[in-house]
Amino acid sequence: MVEAGTSEKLMRFLESGIYRFESSKAVFIDPVRVLNRSYSRFKVSPSAYYSRFFDTHGSRAGVSSNTRKRKRKEKQAATALNERELAADRRHQEVRAFLLKAHESLRGANELLSVMPSLRSGEDAPAKNIETWEPQQSLIELGRLWQASMFEITLNFPSSEEQTTGYQRILPVFGNLVVNDMDDDVEAEFLNSQYIIPRESHFYISDLKHIKNLVPDGGDCGFHLIVVDPPWENGSAHQKMRYPTLPNRYFLSIPIKQLAHREGALVALWVTNREKLRTFVEKEMFPSWGVRHVATFHWLKVKADGSLIGDIDLFHHRPYESLLLGYCSRKSGDSEKLSIDRAIPDNQVILSIPGDYSRKPPVQDLVLEFIPGLKPPRCVELFAREMRAGWHSWGNEPLYFQESRYFQPPCG
Fold first, then answer.
1. pLDDT tens-place string over residues 259-309
2. Which of 165, 232, 251, 405 has its CA 20 to 30 A from that of 68?
3. 309 touches 61 (CB < 8 A)
4. CB 129 within 8 A of CB 191
């Protein structure tokens, strides 16, 4: 419900999900509003999306948590940093001022702060308690079975002006490009689960060794924007329980150049703050992909009250991740020659309240003007766990957040 006297800037945020700060190179995003522009009849459930960081004074965010963080920080300060950790700290110090200025802008935006606690409540549907949900069926495990090629998904297309009655398509779910070519949401059934497929979208479920099946036949069918969110190798047993990771060198084989459009592509790669990983990407991965790094964005994670989810200087648990942006051409050495009207501003900060573990905020609107080629661009997300209207989504679980439990009931 929009109150009288709401500013035009806040009204634009409530419609688009994007709030731009004039005092810094920063934006605040409500991913739910952004994602909901992909749907006609269904809407992403705010309470299902925002499953964390809304309890600002419960036991998890209280004294005991702060005490543990303080002890870790004291232990860190007392331990001498090795060469790699010193390099990571230097990199952190270079971006720290941008992060703090962005957070200061948020703390000064009183009208935005006033609506942030209500982002989780939604408008028409009761809140969903995801802690009571049964575990999802694992598409990763099903895809490894010898019967995987026999599994099928049913797409239930609604009636339209051209088609007066609804109809079904039954298609192989693994190793097959599944397409919703309608200008409407489609409900899909696979085994005992229901999924929501956004309009004019495609998904392809496979493991990394079959990604070349996604490469288009011609350059005009390639992609202008390639978003990559790899399951980076990680020693954390907690992370491995949530989703399997891969050795970083496996990602060198991703055919980025072949996936790029003839007009070139903007590549957006999500990375953590581990210095070993950043060095690997800059010295090995981007060169092997033929990507020229041009800018870095930073995703600063905040709670519903606007505070950071953690101490900004806590060495191994900093409250931000980075998005490396670079250009790629299908022809060797041509990434320097791509015609872009505007240079991408470096160190732009994206603020948002995090959703479920590993779920990244949608960034297409923030980079649209820097994507080469004609508009609308052809976009693909690699290692996707959700879908968007007009996009291709590839990985071994692109339907993860498309399950109906993450959505509100259909409109109308």
1. 999 999 999 999 999 999 999 999 999 999 999 999 999 999 999 999 999
2. 232
3. no
4. no
First vs last C-alpha separation in the chain: 19
CA distance 327 to 372: 9
Q: Given a cut of 70, is residue 14 above it in pLDDT?
A: yes
DSSP string, 177-244: EEEE-SSS-EEEEETTEEEEE-TTEEEEE--GGGGGGGS-SSGGGSBSEEEE--------HHHHHHS-
Q: Are 355 and 227 in contact (CB under 8 A)?
A: no
- Return the structure tokens found at 122: 């939604």
**Alpha-carbon distance values, 363 to 224, 275, 352 (Å):** 14, 24, 12
Which residues lie across from 172 on neighbouring strands?
A: 152
List phi, psi (to 5°) of 227. Answer: -95, 130
Question: What are the two backbone dihedrals, phi and then psi, of residue 238, each rounded to the nearest 5 degrees?
Answer: -65, -45
Helix (H) or strand (E) holding 366: helix 364-367
* DSSP bridge partners of 260: 223
Q: What is the DSSP letter of 285?
A: I
Query: Which strand (E) or helix (H) includes residue 171?
Result: strand 167-172
Contact (CB, 8 A) for 37 and 43: no
